Amino acid sequence: MGTFSGLISLFCIVSFSMINIGDKPPAFINETQWLRGKAPGLGNEIIIIELWSSSCSACKEEIRHLTYLQKFYGDRIHIVGLSSDPINILKKFIDEHNNEIGYTVGHVSKEVMSRYSEGVVPSSFIIDKEGDVVWKGHPARIEEVLNKILAGETDIEFFKKLETMEKALDEKIKSNDMTSMAKAARAILDIDPSNVQSLKVVISYAKYNRVPKLIREIFDSIPMTDLNGFKANLFAIMLLFDSDLGYRYPEAAMKYATYALKQWPENGDYINTYARSLYCLGDVEKAIEWQKKAVKLVPDNSYYQDNLDYYLSIKILRDNN
User: Fold this and answer.
1) Within this chain, do residues 204 and 300 fall inside the same structural domain, yes or no?
2) pLDDT tens across 162-194, in order?
3) How far apart, in Å, are the Cα atoms of 23 and each of 19, 20, 133, 144, 264?
4) 201 and 120, same structural domain?
C-alpha cells in the first residue's frame, strides 16, 4: 500500500458562497465599477462570474484559463472577474497584465466580496440566459458544466444534487479517509463521468492501493461527448505526467490529446500535449515534428522550446546507438 502523504495537495476544496443554485443573481452585479470591458447583460447571455484578488496566486493562474474560455467560446459567454482590491492596485494590475486578461473586470466592495465568496477566492458561479444561477464552484471546474449549459441542457436539480455530493466529497477529503473519499468520488462519477475532482480522488486511491488498472478503467469509461478541448487536454496531461511510470496511460492520453487538437488545431498547449503523447508512445520523430509546430505558433514559450530540445537530444542519443 502506498503512502497517503501529499496526495491531498491534488485537490482543490471548493468554496461554496451564499449564492445558491436556482437564485437570481445578486444585486451587486448592477453596482459594479467596470474597469475593463463592458457590463454583462443579465437575462440576455450566459455569464461566468469569478470572484478573485490580485494577491491570490491561484487567482492569477486562472487568468490564462478564463481568457482561453472567453476566446474559445466567443460571444456565447461573457466572463467577468470581480475583485475588492483597492482600486488603485487593481487598476495597476490590469494595466500590467492587460495583454493576458481577455475578459471583463470590475471592482466591488469588500463587504460584497466577503459575503459572496465567504472569504475564499477564487470562486465562481454561472448565470444562464434566463437570469438564474445554475452552477457555482471553483473556476477551474467550469468546463465540467459549461457545455451542458450552452447546449440548453440546464438541469438545476441535477446541479443541486451534484453540488450536494461534491460538498460531501470535500468533507471526506478533509477527513483524510481515502476509502470514504474514493466511495464518494465513484458515486459522483456514476452521474458525472468526467468530474475532474472525483477523477483525481480515484487516481490517488489507485496509487495509494497500488491498483494502476483502476486508472485505465475510469478513463476508458468517460464518454468523449462529455468533453470539450480544454478538459480533454487536461485528461491527457493527467495521464502523461505522473512521476510513477506505472500509473501513466499514454494510449488513452493520445486519444484525449487527439480529440482536444481537433477542437482547436492552433492551440499551442494542445499541440504540446499531443507531441508529448507521441513521445511517450515511442514516436520521437513525430513528437519533434509536432513540437516544432507548437514552438512556431508561440515562439516565446520557453516550455515548448525546452520540450523540443529534449526530444531532439533523445533522437541524437538514439541515432548514436
Assistant:
1) yes
2) 889 988 998 999 888 899 999 999 999 999 898
3) 7, 6, 5, 20, 34
4) no
